[in-house]
Design goal:
The complex is a heterodimer of chains A (703) and B (74). With 703 residues, chain A is of the alpha/beta class. Helix content of chain A is 61%, strand content 8%. In chain A, the strands form three sheets. A seven-stranded mixed sheet of chain A has the order 2-3-4-1-5-6-8, sandwiched between helices. Chain A is elongated and about 100 Å long. The chains are: A alpha/beta (703), B alpha+beta (74).
């Protein structure tokens, strides 16, 4: 027998995830729910020696009528006993300081017929507000087990264990539905129950109201339900509104009987005092600006030593391997192909970790929802939503987790626009390209005694990314029409101290998904690229080498080896590719070598710098002391004889990389999140067109 | 006199919810505790005056003015 499934259900900020971490400790994993891409957090919880359960942490919801994609999942599971994650017991975690609203969800889940346990959390917060909840009376009134817990400290877990064991062995369901739809729509419910072989009245109502969103119903069944709605002229929104009001009325009597509230009226909490500053017309934006500055500082300055260390470590390992392994194609593949590729991914971990550490801290403390509030008005002008702020900020590190962060946006159109423009934010993979090319053409000089010219150029590119994201959003807003009304209704949680284990897990998850998602693609491309650069059609590469050696008998060894390597590369498959696309990229100022780098970085931008290194040094083996920058400065333009990397070319490349959609992982993420190939294609085409046109204009203008 | 909505309240002003004029929006608002008869208090506004923050049954709810305008108060 498979282990019993325990689902954690609850309002956002009710303490569900804290409880999840308490129960599962380190025995948890993240995956996807079958058929959907919403993150699935699950773990094992050994209640006693014989009972090992699987705990599933469901997304936080206010009711079982979903408002966003994330929330859809909860009903999809709780309404479908055949679902692999359908719980044997649902623990509904409620915030005791806000029992009234939290009980709405509880009564709905209980009415669906799932065996439930009510976990009363945050009793300490309630006590501070001079509220006392009588758990025994609540249990009697609701007819289900009620357990007092403290999810942060782990108090009450023994009682929770007993309650879960009790529910597993002898399930107690509440006797009578809290809200029985058959009281008002008798025939409709009876008809639905008969046609779909359902036992539960409330589940039958969910079939009627939510059948379009239920993935477990086939087309035929959905049409059948539409027919029932027609037959009884049933108005879903009216009924649903009536249901909510009736539930709240009944809950009000329950709360009145079980909660003693001696809170003095008009008490100003310190959350309200803080909000007065954080939502202040001037201070609010000033503080947000400061926080953003802090984030950027963390990504660029604080992460640098760690990145250097990783870089040095990979280089050292590479050197060690080259020395100790016998020379040959296999060793080359391992060092120049695989290790170089893996190093290109690992080096971004510090930046991603720092960004998500700060974002997690802001979310945990409750500040992020204030940011969404102060930004909503501005974002709305561009067809976005206050909730788009988090994906856009996260996009500075990596678009893949950023796109996944759009799931909390309830309106489909707002979400789609956010997904489409997020990759325009300059992610950390663009940074090495920016730094190398800026170092090439922008002098390192102080201006106004304070700023470094190169730093300003870098900031300019980031701002260009941000503004183009906003403009693209505005353009998409005009193009994408929608009947759906955009909305922004959000609870502002009280300020809390962050839970450090929670923050740590979030950082770990984002780093893991980056390394895994982006890493696989980059590794594969590195290997392919190495093969393409190391082999050519027939013996063309050998011929090129022989010819070069014959024609340059007097050249010094080093210079000859470099020339040979370059000629060999031109004769390789990669060289052929580069020449093939040269006519297309010529107007932008690029030659076939840059063409190879462009093609290879199509998979992921970070490959660009590695490819340039490969192109300009492959085969020489001895390039110590010569950085890519110096190598690029030496490069001559065969036509003019002057330097190849002129400011016009460098800026054209820079601008190209600001806009170009060059990341397979991001396209894959867009495909997963929109469940269609149309949107990743739209994203690819509009961003590449933007990149080409602007790079063309830059080169022609500066030439 | 036209009906007053939550969007017309001043900061610190209290009112009691009467009805809604948008059915789909009302479903979302009802679930968040904005019930007919419930007392609400406009506790603050975002820097540009929109969205606004309301105190409803003991917690703080942020919503856009256009959404607040669908909630009529006495």
């Amino acid at each position: 027998m498979s282990s019993p499934v325990i689902a954690l259900v609850g309002n956002p900020n009710a303490g569900k995830s804290s409880l999840f971490n308490q129960l599962t400790g380190l025995r948890q994993k993240t995956g996807n729910f079958p058929g959907v891409t919403v993150d699935k957090k699950s773990g094992t919880w050994a209640i006693d020696s014989r009972t090992v359960t699987t705990v599933v942490d469901l997304p936080g919801v206010y009711s079982i009528y979903p408002k966003s994609l994330d929330e859809q999942l909860v009903t999809d599971i709780l309404a479908n006993p055949a679902h692999p994650d359908y719980p044997d017991v649902a623990i509904v975690v409620v915030d005791a300081s806000n029992l009234h609203r939290n009980l709405l969800l509880f009564t709905q889940v209980a009415d669906l017929g799932v065996p439930v346990i009510l976990a009363l959390n945050m009793l300490d917060v309630a006590r501070k507000q001079a509220k006392e909840v009588n758990a025994v009376r609540l249990a009697m009134r609701l007819g289900v087990p009620v357990v007092r817990i403290n999810a942060r400290t782990g108090e009450g877990l023994d009682q929770l264990k007993k309650a879960v064991l009790g529910q597993l062995h002898e399930p107690v369901r509440q006797g009578k539905l809290f809200f029985d739809p058959a009281e008002e729509a008798t025939e409709l419910i009876a008809d639905t129950k008969a046609q779909y072989r359902l036992e539960n009245n409330y589940l039958a109502l969910q079939y009627i109201i939510q059948h379009d969103g239920f993935t477990f119903l086939d087309r035929q069944q959905q049409i059948g339900l539409d027919a029932i709605i027609d037959k009884y002229q049933f108005s879903e929104p009216t009924f649903q509104a009536g249901e909510t009001i009736t539930r709240y009325k009944r809950i009000a009597t329950v709360v009145a009987e079980t909660v003693t509230d001696q809170r003095p009226a008009n008490q100003s909490t310190w959350t309200q005092k803080l909000d007065r500053i954080l939502l202040h017309p001037i201070w609010g934006y000033a503080i947000f600006g400061f926080v953003l500055l802090l984030i950027f500082q963390a990504i660029f300055a604080w992460a640098q030593p760690f990145m250097d260390a990783i870089d040095a470590g990979v280089a050292w390992l590479n050197g060690q391997l080259k020395e100790s392994l016998p020379a040959g194609p296999l060793t080359d593949l391992l060092t120049d192909g695989i290790l170089a590729g893996v190093g290109g991914i690992l080096v971004f971990i510090p930046q991603i970790a720092f960004l998500f550490l700060l974002v997690a801290l802001l979310e945990e403390s409750g500040y992020m929802s204030r940011v969404m509030v102060i930004m909503d008005r501005i974002m709305r002008k561009f067809g976005l939503n206050g909730r788009s702020v988090v994906p856009l900020i996260s996009g500075v590190a990596c678009a893949v987790p950023a796109i996944m962060a759009t799931r909390s946006i309830g309106t489909r159109r707002d979400r789609l626009i956010t997904i489409l423009v997020t990759p325009l934010m300059s992610c950390s993979a663009r940074l090495p390209i920016y730094t190398i090319l800026i170092a090439l053409v922008v002098p390192s000089r102080r201006v106004l005694g304070l700023f470094n010219l190169q730093g300003l150029a870098l900031m300019g590119l980031y701002l260009l990314g941000l503004f183009s994201a906003l403009l693209a959003a505005y353009a998409l807003k005009l193009v994408l029409r929608s009947k759906e009304r955009s909305f922004f209704i959000m609870e502002l949680p009280t300020f809390k101290l962050p839970r450090w284990n929670h923050v740590g897990l979030t950082v770990w998850e984002s780093v893991r998904s980056f390394v895994w998602e982006a890493g696989r693609v980059i590794l594969a491309i590195s290997i392919i690229l190495w093969v393409l650069a190391s082999y050519g059609p027939g013996d063309s590469m050998q011929q090129a080498e022989n010819q070069t050696r014959r024609q340059n008998p007097t050249l010094a060894t080093d210079a000859l080896e470099n020339l040979v390597a370059s000629e060999r590369l031109e004769a390789s498959y990669a060289g052929h590719f580069g020449h093939f696309i040269e006519p297309v990229i010529r107007p932008l100022g690029y030659d076939w070598k840059i063409g190879i780098a462009l093609i290879s970085s199509f998979a992921a931008r970070e490959v660009f710098v590695g490819t340039m290194a490969t192109i300009y040094s492959i085969g020489t083996g001895d390039d110590e002391g010569v950085t890519i920058r110096e190598r690029l400065l030496q490069e001559r333009n065969p036509e003019t004889g002057g330097p190849m990397y002129t400011p016009a070319l460098a800026w054209s490349l820079l601008i190209f990389y600001v806009f170009a959609m060059m990341c397979m992982s991001t396209l894959a993420a867009t495909q997963r999140e929109t469940k269609s190939w149309k949107w990743p294609m739209v994203q690819l085409v509009y961003m590449m067109a933007l990149a080409y046109v602007t790079a063309f204009a830059t080169y022609q203008f500066m030439k | 006199m036209s009906k007053r909505s939550v969007a017309d309240l001043k900061i610190g002003e209290r009112a009691t919810i009467q009805s809604f004029d948008n059915q789909l929006m009302s479903l979302k608002l009802l679930e968040m505790g904005c019930l007919p008869g419930a007392e609400i208090c406009l506790s603050g506004k975002a820097p540009l005056g929109d969205p606004i923050c309301l105190n409803v049954s003991g917690y703080c709810l942020a919503m856009r003015k256009s959404e607040a305008a669908t909630i009529f108060v006495d």
